[in-house]
Amino acid sequence: MQRIAQFEKVSFEQFEKDWLKCFPDTTNVKEIYDNIKLPFRATSGSAGYDFFAPSDVTFEKGRSVLIPTGIRSKINDGWVLSIFPRSGLGFKHRIGLDNTVGIIDSDYYNSSNEGHIMIKLSCTAHDDGHSVCVNAGDGFAQGIFTQFGITVDDSADGVRDGGFGSTTSK
Q: pLDDT in tens for each of the 170 residues of the chain?
């Protein structure tokens, strides 16, 4: 297998800024940051790298939660990291990514937010009042690296500075 990427933590300053936007009442951000686990594969045959909840997160029916992971990934050119929910959360609780599949491009690493991977999930369970808590340190998403190609007449020369929708031409 080719080794084409490296996971790292974003700086504490970046994590704190992003975390407090999503969870403003948090008082122990440094402790949460210090306990972030880098994604890893559970078995040698696994394609997905598990992403772990930095803190307890509750998903309620009909609500979305944006989770700053504290993680970024340095990815070789020609590769992309696709983010998916963990299978069990989808099957048991109908939790899915708001954008269906998250795409982390190789140039996102150099973005002004340090390439901080943020994962937004929603619960679409059928039963009223449904909720599930993912505990700190539990896997909630997975990332798979895939190679991609470009067209023979490709002339992209833009420079990224941001995440969600930042590369769309205006």
A: 899 999 999 999 999 999 999 999 999 999 999 999 999 999 999 999 999 999 999 999 999 999 999 999 999 999 999 999 998 898 899 999 999 999 999 999 999 999 999 999 999 988 888 999 999 999 999 999 999 999 999 988 877 575 545 444 44
- Does this model's pTM top 0.85? My answer is yes
- Locate 135 and state its tokens: 């505990």
DSSP state of 109: G
Burial of 100 (0-12, 13-18, 19+ CB in 10 A): exposed
